[in-house]
Amino acid sequence: MADLKVTGKQTFMGQEIPVVLGGFGENQRCMADKTIAEIHNVTVSDIRKATTRNIKRFKIGVDVLDFKSPSSDDDLNSGTDAIDSRALELLQSLGYSTQQIVQAEHIYIYSERGYAKLIKIMDSDLAWEIHDKLIDEYF
What we know:
By secondary structure, this protein is of the alpha+beta class. The chain is about 40% helix and about 20% strand. It has helices spanning about 35-40, 45-55, 85-95, 100-105, 110-120, 125-135; strands at about 5-10, 15-20, 30, 65, 110. It has a 5-stranded antiparallel sheet. Helix 5 (about 110-120) packs antiparallel against helix 6 (about 125-135). The longest helix is centred in the last third of the chain and has 13 residues, at about 125-135. The relative contact order is 0.21.
Protein backbone atom coordinates (compact mmCIF):
# COMPACT_ATOMS: atom_id res chain seq x y z
CA MET A 1 0.00 0.00 0.00
CA ALA A 2 2.99 2.23 0.41
CA ASP A 3 3.10 2.83 -3.35
CA LEU A 4 -0.49 4.11 -3.58
CA LYS A 5 -0.76 7.72 -4.67
CA VAL A 6 -3.47 10.12 -5.76
CA THR A 7 -2.34 11.81 -8.97
CA GLY A 8 -5.28 14.12 -9.56
CA LYS A 9 -8.97 14.03 -10.34
CA GLN A 10 -11.02 12.94 -13.31
CA THR A 11 -14.58 13.75 -14.27
CA PHE A 12 -16.68 10.61 -14.49
CA MET A 13 -20.46 10.63 -14.92
CA GLY A 14 -20.57 14.27 -13.80
CA GLN A 15 -18.53 13.63 -10.64
CA GLU A 16 -14.93 14.46 -9.82
CA ILE A 17 -13.26 11.23 -8.73
CA PRO A 18 -9.69 10.78 -7.54
CA VAL A 19 -7.21 9.07 -9.85
CA VAL A 20 -5.35 6.54 -7.71
CA LEU A 21 -2.28 4.67 -8.92
CA GLY A 22 -0.34 1.79 -7.44
CA GLY A 23 -1.15 -0.82 -4.86
CA PHE A 24 -1.59 -3.53 -7.49
CA GLY A 25 1.39 -2.69 -9.68
CA GLU A 26 3.24 0.35 -10.85
CA ASN A 27 0.91 2.90 -12.46
CA GLN A 28 -2.09 0.54 -12.22
CA ARG A 29 -5.28 2.45 -11.51
CA CYS A 30 -7.37 1.44 -8.54
CA MET A 31 -10.39 2.77 -6.71
CA ALA A 32 -11.47 3.22 -3.10
CA ASP A 33 -14.71 1.85 -1.67
CA LYS A 34 -15.83 5.42 -0.94
CA THR A 35 -15.46 6.44 -4.59
CA ILE A 36 -17.31 3.35 -5.80
CA ALA A 37 -20.14 4.03 -3.35
CA GLU A 38 -20.46 7.62 -4.58
CA ILE A 39 -20.52 6.57 -8.25
CA HIS A 40 -23.14 3.87 -7.63
CA ASN A 41 -25.17 6.08 -5.28
CA VAL A 42 -25.03 3.57 -2.42
CA THR A 43 -23.47 3.79 1.02
CA VAL A 44 -19.85 2.90 1.69
CA SER A 45 -21.25 0.44 4.20
CA ASP A 46 -23.13 -1.34 1.38
CA ILE A 47 -19.90 -1.72 -0.62
CA ARG A 48 -17.92 -2.94 2.38
CA LYS A 49 -20.62 -5.40 3.45
CA ALA A 50 -20.82 -6.86 -0.07
CA THR A 51 -17.06 -7.28 -0.14
CA THR A 52 -16.73 -8.66 3.38
CA ARG A 53 -19.62 -11.09 2.83
CA ASN A 54 -17.85 -12.37 -0.30
CA ILE A 55 -14.22 -11.90 0.74
CA LYS A 56 -13.37 -15.49 -0.22
CA ARG A 57 -14.04 -14.51 -3.84
CA PHE A 58 -11.42 -11.74 -3.74
CA LYS A 59 -7.68 -12.33 -3.83
CA ILE A 60 -6.02 -10.06 -1.30
CA GLY A 61 -3.27 -8.06 -2.99
CA VAL A 62 -4.62 -8.86 -6.45
CA ASP A 63 -8.28 -7.80 -6.30
CA VAL A 64 -8.52 -5.82 -3.08
CA LEU A 65 -6.43 -4.24 -0.33
CA ASP A 66 -7.78 -3.46 3.12
CA PHE A 67 -6.20 -0.54 4.98
CA LYS A 68 -7.62 -1.88 8.23
CA SER A 69 -6.67 -5.54 7.84
CA PRO A 70 -5.13 -6.93 11.03
CA SER A 71 -3.33 -9.56 8.94
CA SER A 72 -1.52 -6.96 6.86
CA ASP A 73 2.23 -6.97 7.25
CA ASP A 74 2.44 -3.62 5.51
CA ASP A 75 4.06 -0.80 7.39
CA LEU A 76 1.01 1.40 6.82
CA ASN A 77 -1.11 -0.72 9.12
CA SER A 78 -0.02 -1.94 12.51
CA GLY A 79 -2.97 -4.31 12.82
CA THR A 80 -4.73 -1.98 15.25
CA ASP A 81 -7.04 0.93 14.68
CA ALA A 82 -3.98 3.14 14.41
CA ILE A 83 -2.99 4.05 10.86
CA ASP A 84 0.29 5.86 10.23
CA SER A 85 0.45 9.41 8.95
CA ARG A 86 1.17 8.44 5.30
CA ALA A 87 -1.90 6.21 5.15
CA LEU A 88 -4.01 8.80 6.95
CA GLU A 89 -2.95 11.48 4.47
CA LEU A 90 -3.71 9.22 1.51
CA LEU A 91 -7.15 8.27 2.83
CA GLN A 92 -7.99 11.92 3.54
CA SER A 93 -6.98 12.81 -0.02
CA LEU A 94 -9.52 10.19 -1.13
CA GLY A 95 -12.25 12.03 0.80
CA TYR A 96 -12.38 10.05 4.05
CA SER A 97 -12.72 12.05 7.25
CA THR A 98 -10.53 11.16 10.22
CA GLN A 99 -13.65 9.93 12.04
CA GLN A 100 -14.58 7.64 9.11
CA ILE A 101 -11.07 6.22 9.06
CA VAL A 102 -10.96 5.55 12.80
CA GLN A 103 -14.45 4.03 12.96
CA ALA A 104 -14.19 1.81 9.88
CA GLU A 105 -13.66 -1.90 10.33
CA HIS A 106 -12.48 -2.13 6.70
CA ILE A 107 -11.36 0.40 4.10
CA TYR A 108 -11.08 -1.36 0.76
CA ILE A 109 -9.12 -0.37 -2.33
CA TYR A 110 -9.99 -2.31 -5.51
CA SER A 111 -7.98 -3.16 -8.60
CA GLU A 112 -9.77 -3.20 -11.94
CA ARG A 113 -10.17 -6.96 -11.52
CA GLY A 114 -11.49 -6.52 -7.96
CA TYR A 115 -13.97 -3.90 -9.11
CA ALA A 116 -15.22 -6.30 -11.80
CA LYS A 117 -15.82 -8.93 -9.11
CA LEU A 118 -17.66 -6.39 -6.97
CA ILE A 119 -19.95 -5.56 -9.91
CA LYS A 120 -20.80 -9.24 -10.27
CA ILE A 121 -21.76 -9.29 -6.59
CA MET A 122 -23.84 -6.10 -6.92
CA ASP A 123 -25.53 -7.51 -10.05
CA SER A 124 -27.85 -4.72 -11.06
CA ASP A 125 -28.41 -3.19 -14.49
CA LEU A 126 -27.08 0.15 -13.22
CA ALA A 127 -23.97 -1.51 -11.76
CA TRP A 128 -23.19 -3.17 -15.10
CA GLU A 129 -23.77 0.09 -17.00
CA ILE A 130 -21.43 1.97 -14.66
CA HIS A 131 -18.90 -0.86 -14.91
CA ASP A 132 -18.73 -0.55 -18.70
CA LYS A 133 -18.22 3.22 -18.44
CA LEU A 134 -15.53 2.86 -15.76
CA ILE A 135 -13.62 0.31 -17.81
CA ASP A 136 -13.81 2.55 -20.89
CA GLU A 137 -13.13 5.88 -19.17
CA TYR A 138 -11.18 5.24 -15.94
CA PHE A 139 -9.27 1.96 -16.09
